[in-house]
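Continuing the batch. This is chain 6 of the set; chains 1 through 5 are on the previous pages. Same settings as before, nothing changed between runs. Recording input and output for traceability.
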Amino acid sequence: MSRIKIMVDSISTIPWETADELGIELVPYYVNFEGESIREDPSFDLKAFYKKLRQAKDWPGTSHPAPLDIEERFGRLSQEADEIIYLMIPSQLTETYNIAHQLREKFKGVRIELCDVGSVLGKLGLVALEAYRLAEAGKTVDEIIDQVYSMSKRSRVFITLETLKYLARTGRIGKAAALLGTTLSIKPIITTQEGMIVPAGKTLTHNQAINWVLKKIKSDLDKFNARKIKCFVNDVDNRKISDLVRARLEKNFQCEEVWQVEMSPLIATATGPGTWAVSYLIVE
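Output for chain 6:
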């Protein structure tokens, strides 16, 4: 058994049951809604949350993991492993990196590496799953970290929104704010770049957005002279579209893995109902 443990933010959308089965440690984020701070964990009722989200008058807020959540995991895993790799979302979007950086100083007997993957959702999830597999295969921490950053260059996430108004409320819209002045009928497509949310494209319909994403995948496959992908499909109360997206991916590409998972409530709160996303990793 590997003596390297993998931690990753829950925003990766790796299913909790999968993480538990594999021994990947998910670090929960929080949604502040209707006077309550709700931790993202296996008991979080996403369907009920999305239903409330469509009817919400006071929009929810979000918060990073509690320091105790991270400290507890560092402490527990340090009893099980010699080394820990914590894969996390961009430091520009959250204080999680700074919190973890301070807390790891308490655990001198174990090597704890913090890796800012520079992205969210399935891109983070795909990299974390591959890091786990590398650890199980006996790779060293340094070898895994090298592969993590290599995979980050071969992976992307594209998020298609019904509207930008929800993202604008968060104050983290970044360069995607340039799309706010466009017609309300468009379907904005955003991505992450150097830890920031940036515009990637815009289409008039969801079907056009799907075609746009498929072209990007084909372009990246050609760029890396590759044939196969692994991918995540996420949605916020938009299963009809995510079913269609998955079908189109499987029809057009050689998909080694397809994970179809509801969107993290943290991202759902930022992007709003109807959002869907595709993340993919080019397989070497």
